[in-house]
TrEMBL record:
The keyword Aminoacyl-tRNA synthetase does not apply. This is Transposase, IS4 family. Keywords: Plasmid. Residues 2-105 form the Transposase IS4-like domain. GO terms for biological process: DNA transposition. InterPro entries: Transposase_11. GO terms for molecular function: DNA binding; transposase activity. It comes from Azotobacter chroococcum NCIMB 8003.
Length: 106
């Protein structure tokens, strides 16, 4: 499910229980239309806040392609370090993720 900063659901996708959420993330993000001012609705957001389950390189590359900033914590499993600068994690911005958790709770 995708919601805006106010907790209003924008789009959701049902998938089988055994399928991981990351496998349908790009398809869900492609269907989002963000309502706003007059004219054509925006299709992409500025920030993508997600939990550790969405930590995948292909989702981060998708965000880079469409100029979205992913705020996704890294998983704790050991990996080989990637060359170049590490991605920064914006902890204050990540705290806003509780909006979708509260939306599920309603």
């Amino acid at each position: 499910m995708v919601c805006d900063a106010n907790g209003v659901p924008l789009r959701f996708l049902l998938s089988p229980g055994q399928a991981s959420d990351i496998s349908n993330a790009q398809a869900l993000l492609d269907q989002v239309r963000i309502p706003g001012k007059q004219g054509r609705p925006r299709k992409r957001c500025r920030w993508l806040l997600a939990d550790k389950g969405y930590d995948a390189e292909h989702l981060r590359q998708y965000c880079d392609r469409y100029r979205m900033r992913p705020v996704i914590p890294l998983r704790t499993m050991k990996r080989k370090p990637k060359p170049g600068l590490p991605r920064l994690f914006d902890r204050p911005k990540y705290r806003q993720r509780n909006i979708i958790e509260r939306m599920f709770g309603c």
